[in-house]
Amino acid sequence: MNIFVKDKEFYKRVLQISIPIAMQGLINVGVSMTDTMMLGSFGEITLSAASLANQFCFIFLIINFGLGGGAGVLSGQFWGKKDTTSINKVLSILIKASILFAMIFIFLGQVLTKNIMGVYTKEVDVISQGVMYLKIVSLSFIFQGISTTVNILFRTVGTVKIALFASISSFAVNIFLNWVLIFGNLGAPQLGIKGAAIATLTARIIEFSVVCIYVLKVDKKLKFKLKYLFEIDKELLKSYIKVGGPVLVSDLILALGLNMVSVIMGRMGSDMVAANSISSVVLQFTNVFLMGVSNASGVITGNTIGEEKYDLAYQRSITFLAMAILLGICSSVAIFALKYVIIDFYNISDSTKAIAHELMNSTSFLVVFMSISTILTKGILRAGGDTKFLMIADVLFLWMVSIPLGYVAGIVLNLSPWIVLIALKIDEIIKGLWCVARLISKKWIKNIDCEEDVKKQVEVVS
After folding, report:
1. 3-state DSSP: the chain helix, strand, coil percent, rounded to 5?
2. What is the DSSP code (8-state) at residue 222?
3. Residue 458 belongs to a domain
4. Residue 1 is assigned to a structural domain of this protein
5. Which of 189, 210, 255, 451 matches a 20 to 30 Å C-alpha distance to 395?
6. Domain boundaries, position 368
7. Cα separation of 340 and 344, whole Å?
8. pTM assigned to the model
C-alpha cells in the first residue's frame, strides 16, 4: 500500500477544505498576536492577567469544540448518506446545548470572577486586572458558542468559507477597537485591558451576526429553519449522546487539564505566564495549516465512512498521518528560525524574553508529536466514531503523567522553563505514538448506522 494516495481529486478536496480553515486560523492567531503585543506594551502584569483570564474562556471554547466535534461525527457521516434532515436535527441539538453551557459560564464569569482568577495566580495586581477583563469577555459566550459550534458542523458538509468571512469581519472590528480603546485613540478614553475586553465582546457579536445571517438566509445545502430549535428527535438525541458524550467529556477534562498546566505556570510567576503566552501564539501561527488539514481529515474520513468505503478511509488516513509528520517538521523549523524575530516585537523584560526563547526551543521539538496527535485525535479517529478510545487517550496521559511531572518539575524542583514545558506536554508524545498504533489496527472505523457490519467489511490493506 502506498503511503500517499494517488488521487488528484482527494488532494484537491483537502486543499478546498483546509485552505479556508487555515486562513481563518491565521486570522485568529493575528488577533491573539495583536492583543498580546498591544497589552504587552503595558507590561507583564497586564499581559498575564489577560492570558490567565482567557484560560477560563478556553474551557468554554473547548466545551464547544467537544459539542461540535460530537455533532460533527454524526453530520459528517449523514452528509456521506445525503441525509440533510438528520443533519438539521443534529444542528438544533448542538445550538441548544451550546446555549445551555454558555449560560452556566456567563453566571460563573459574572459571580465568581475573583475566585476564578485566584485559581490561576496569587498576584493581587494580576487578579485585579483579570477580573475586569473576564467580567466583560464572559458576556460574549452565547455569541461565541453558537458561532463556533455552527461553523464546526458546517465544515463537515464542506461549507468552510462562511467561517473565514465571519473571522475576517471579527478580526477587522477587534483590531480597530483594540487600537481605539486600549490606547485611547480617536478621542476615546485609554481603557487598557478593559478596552481589549470590550473589543473582543463586540467582535464576537459581529461574528455571530454574520454566521446567523448565512445559516438562515444564504445557505442552500441544509436550509436550516428556526422551527428545528423547538423540535427534539429522541432517537437522534440518544445517538448524539452516545457518540458526542465521550467527545464532550474528553474535551472538558482535557480543557481542565490544560488549565492545570496554566495554574502551574501561574504559580511560577508573571514572567513565565507572559513568555508562555508569546510562545503559544507562535505555535498557533506555525500550525494554522495543520489545523486546516486536521479538519479536512475529519470531514473526508467521516464522509468516506458514511459512504461505507472503509478500505479507502483507511488508505486516506495513512496519507493524512504522513501529512501530519511533514507539517510538524515544517512547524519545528519555522519556530526555531523565527523565535528571535517575533520575541523582539514585544515590549517585555529581558528575563521574560529569555524564558520565551527556552519555551520555543522546547516547542520546536514537541510540535512534531503535537501535529500527529492533533490530526489523529481531532480528525481521523474522531470522524471514525472512535470517541470512547479518544476519551481515554486525551485524559489518561495528561492527568496521570504530564500534570504530576509538570508540578514536580516547576513547583517542587523549580527546574528550567524548557524542562518544565516538556514535562507538561509529554502527554502529546505518548498520545501521538499510542494513537498511531490505534490507527494501524483499524479498530477506529465505526459507521454509526451499521457498526457491527463494519468489523466484517474492513479488509486488511497490504
Report:
1. 85, 0, 15
2. S
3. no
4. no
5. 451
6. 8-453
7. 6
8. 0.72
